[in-house]
Description:
The complex is a heterotrimer. Chain A is an all-alpha fold. Chain A has a domain at 3-233. Chain A has helices at 3-32, 39-54, 75-96, 101-121, 123-126, 140-143, 147-174, 176-186, 188-193, 198-224, 236-247, 252-269, 282-301, 316-321. In chain B, a hairpin with a 2-residue loop joins strand 1 (11-22) and strand 2. In chain B, the strands form two sheets. In chain B, strands 6-7-8-3-9-10 form a six-stranded mixed sheet, sandwiched between helices. In chain B, strands 2-1-4-5 form a four-stranded antiparallel sheet, covered by helices on one side. The two termini of chain B are 30 Å apart. In chain B, helix 5 (127-147) crosses helix 6 (163-176). Chain B is built from ten helices and ten strands. Chain C has eleven helices and two strands. In chain C, strand 1 (133-136) and strand 2 (139-142) form a beta hairpin. Chains in contact: A-B, A-C. At the A-B interface, helix 7, helix 8, helix 9 and helix 10 of A face helix 2, helix 3, helix 4, helix 5 and helix 6 of B.
Amino acid sequence: MSAFWLYVFTLIFFLFDYFILAMGLNIQYGETGILNFAYIGFVAIGAYMTGAVSMPNSVGTGQHYILGLNMPFPFNLLVGGLSAMVVSVLVAFIALRRLRTDYLAMVLISLSLVFYDICNNYVPLFNGADGLYNVPSPLAGVLHLTTNSFTVVFALLTGVISLIMWWIMSRITRSPLGRTLRAIRDDDGVAAALGKSVFRYKLTSMMIGSFFAGIGGGLIIQFNTSFNPSAWLPGETFVVFAVIIVGGVSNNIGLLVGSLLVETMLVHLVAFLPAIPGHPGLILNIAAMMIGALLMVMLWFRPQGIVPEKLRRSPAAVAAATTSTDYAGIDEGVSHE
Amino acid sequence: MSDQSVSRADSALGCQDLTKSFLGVRAVNGATFEVPRGQITALIGPNGAGKTTVVNILSGLMKSDGGTMHLESTETTNWESEKIARLGLMRTFQLSRELGGLTVLENLLVAPHDQPGEKLFNIFFRPGRVTKAEKAHVERALEVLRTYGLYELRDSRASDLSGGQKKLLEISRAVMAGPKVLLLDEPMAGVNPALIERIGGYILDLKAQGVTVLMVEHNLNVVEKICDHVIVLAEGRTLATGRLSDLRENKEVVSAYLGEVIDAGAIS
Amino acid sequence: MSVTQFWLSFGFGLSTASVLAVAAVGLSLQFGVTNYINFAYGDFMALGAFVSYALNNEILHLDIWVAMIGGSLFMGVVAVILNRLLLSPFARRFSKTFYVLIVTFGLSLIMLNLLSAIWGDNVRFYNMKIERVIKVGPMLLTKNQLIVMALSVVLMLGVHTMLKTTRLGKSMRAMSDNSTLAMTSGIDTKRITTITWFLSGTMAGLAGTVLGITEGNLTPAAGELFLFVIFAAVIVGGVGSIYGAMAGAVIIGLATEVSAAFINPAYKLDTAFVILILTLLFRPNGVLARTGKA
């Protein structure tokens, strides 16, 4: 298979993976209004934990890491998702209880930096700055895949997983739970005055989103067969925000579009461009600046994103069952100052 | 001056010696009153008397610096607003706070407590229960919307409503939660006379259904027409309580408040 | 830990606290007046530090302390421009702080990559004289550390005097307490906001440069990594409080350096985070606060 197709399938992988990541951050930011600036940290937890449980015992591998359970796919991936979820509960109990949006964002970004610092320096946890490598490729042994065919199969598998995640997320956002989360996003004081336990729902939202982050991270480490601190600098969270805001807050199609434009094109496609002689990394710097600028332009001119959030209108069946003609002209008696 | 006219047993809601300061300024300074069960009570007083602050404290939106309060027989001093709401106290806001990104119908559907569909487990493992409850809620919500004349707007974005429509939406949302006690913070402010009439009718209907209402109101005409009981606040304290007709005789009240309003021509 | 070690790390702690105080007060001044956190503040520091570097090492070849003034003032002007063209329009247009916070986060990404595009990711060094170590009581400090401390103390006194005695300071405090009230009481809030951004940017540039001087090196990401230590100081002291920021800086500065003598110095910043978490759990409004905004 040609290098070209390998590139294409790598892009397809990241398209679907960032779709999953965007859905996870969207339920926190887009649906609930939690400004989780530590999101990439939860992606990293998912990646490291998936890697650490699927690798053999670390003795003799030349790497240092915890666990090492030879756990097969998809259980390793679930461990990644659940680990991120468990950590999000701890974080929520410390930070989510009584902090204003911006204080919470400060605490979360600090958390992300500290977690980064620990992973980077504390070798016994996840091999320090070198990160984990030689992570087993799932299904490669069972299906007798080569490195190339693994790329194709895993990209498509990620597509299937993202569809499942999409289904799960749609069930949640369309449910009364999703509605209550959006009520909290619009005005948490009103939600509380209606008797909603704002903390409990924010916690639920954090857990769901972090599970998605962990799954997305677990897929990345298995696709790349490695993961190290340079892959998840705190600024990476911003890329996921850009995916959401450019594509469309609280619209799953929008998130897929955002993932295509931001992650696939601006992050990964540009990585394949030849470097400008004498200026290694300049193209990546320019791409990152373009992401920042694109997000600001979108926020200003089209804050709802390319594909805006849909209003959840009442089901047609309900409306049909209750058609009424007993009402005329609501605007009578309403002042327009 | 404490309120002797309503006994604790007849009171649905009340407070004792509430205090609250902002940046060193005493907004509420020993407010004490009882709200009679099943009646409509007006909370009146000049601007800056602390009416909204008292409502905010009673509904748990703000914590008082001192004093106690109760809802029915339960001490609710310094409770979170979500806990107070679940005991059956609902409120509206002086400046309407609609859930702007939701439709009118969704604004109402948020209100019922403990919906099965608000639990992750039920969404995936008991979808039947979720659908059943949701159907019942939708039916009830549409009925409330019809009552309040918002039915045609059920699928509109709440932020697109006019000021008067938002007032109606807030009241119907509170009603949807099935309140025992309803706090209305200036439900008639900024709406035209025809709508004032209508809102007054809705409040009387709620009373007929057994709901206790405490409303902050400036328009003494309205107070006279629909309120059974009046509490006068001035400088954060309870100045007097009783029927409006009795309070008109009270010189202290007249000089502190009624006189000012009469001068301003609010009583026509 | 020996007594000597303790005093050695204590001296370093005072030096870190001095840098931190400048940074934290600069962040808090702007937060108080505009009521949103600037997540690009770490990159403001880095930009100031690199402009100082350019003046010191690439053009003009100024003495580092002179270059520092140039870099700081440059950053102050950039901050004013960024506020006028970018942040203030967003803050005015959207009532939810959400948007402007994300914009500062995006600005941080742009600035970091701009620095990295111009100066590369390699570690740079200021052109400074070999430092003399001076014995101050039981502490051993370099001359540069002493200058930084003196500078910080003077600056803190200056901020204190400005807030308490000048009209500008009083207006700034009024806007911190209640911006609507300040506006209606005839304060030119736009002018005060501009001046505040200038001060905040200048202090960021100053803090970034002195961080480079005391640490001995600078990288584009240095400010960003330092940002959370500033956040820790600000939260521990009580968000929005200038004196809280000063106190927080001393607490965090001393705690990180003294703890570095016990534990692996690679984790000294994590001490700041532990203190931050303890503060959030037990005094969420800050150690000094009576009542707060949180």
